[in-house]
Amino acid sequence: MEKKFTRILVIKMRFHGDMLLTTPVISSLKRNYPEAKIDLLLYQDTIPIMSENQDIHALYGIKNKKAGAVEKAANFIQLIRTLRANKYDLVINLTDQWMIALLVRMLNVATSITQDYGHRQSAFWKNSFTHLAPWLGKHCVDRNLSVLAPLGLTDLCRETTMTYRPEHWQKMRQQLEQLGAHEPYVVIQPTARQAFKCWDNDKFALVIDALQQRGYPVVITTGPGAEDLACAEDIAARCQSRPVTGLAGKTSFPELAALIDHAALFIGVDSAPGHIAAAVHTPIISLFGATDHVFWRPWSDDQIQFWAGDYQPMPPREQRDRNKTYMSVIPAQDVIAATEKMLPHPAHAPQPGGTL
After folding, report:
1. What is the domain range of residue 170?
2. Does residue 56 lie within any of the structural domains?
3. Which of 79, 106, 147, 225 is most buried, taking the most CB atoms under 10 A from its CB?
4. 78: burial class by Cβ within 10 Å (0-12, 13-18, 19+)?
5. Nearest-CA neighbor of 36 among 91, 110, 82?
6. Would you call 268 helix, strand, or coil by DSSP?
């Protein structure tokens, strides 16, 4: 498709980690249409994780299902007015909500591309877009990039992006100093949006003890919810030497990115911070249970991944119990061994051919 686009709207309405896995699409569009203004329509709740992305011209938030019907309708109507005024010449849709078809129809855009979702085969959906792209790829990043096929682009960006400003790291560094943590440190994210993605608190404590005995302070991060904070406190109470919990639930997403970027290692379950670690190129140990460990794994080759299915047979996806912590079968000692592989030397020990 030989066209020069000047105003592009990308639509993705999912959770925080999913938004980071969309960034290769945005980066690829900016690389191929450097003069274009690229806007992003997303859930209002997920705006903070994309707020510092330099490839995005404007972020437009849509209210999610927690809002009331009247509030959602008013928000939708206002968005239509605003987006129509922007006069887009290209829409890239990466979400399967039915109302997106209606929205795209009302924008009257010359070129609109959506992924060809198997459960969106109605004439209304298909006729709302000018192009349907095959939904291809084993990983979410590849699946997202497949939407660009109708454009015929050959120069694609295949890295995820998470951006923060210098002042975000300055704040984190000051707080780490106040909390008594020094570099090199390790960040552990033990919580996720759903409890079935989590590992056992006592096993996290054993891993933390092993790391801190080798001289690596551990910083526990979580979301701001009461259950997340209680989890961090329970893990810390089980440790021989208390890890840093003072930042748990208290960082913005850019601050969290700065904290993870400067870590020697990130250890976490299937949640957004793992995707942040991949985007800032921090080594990763990831833990997966019931969720798809291939499709959702952090987009990084510098990681060791543990999957419950490697330790015992996993039921088919449609039969998995989302109230069961399948990851309990992963031994703490295996994760400790992985930390020794990712961090082969004790912190502050002389390196071969080097000094303290």
Report:
1. 166-342
2. yes
3. 147
4. exposed
5. 91
6. strand
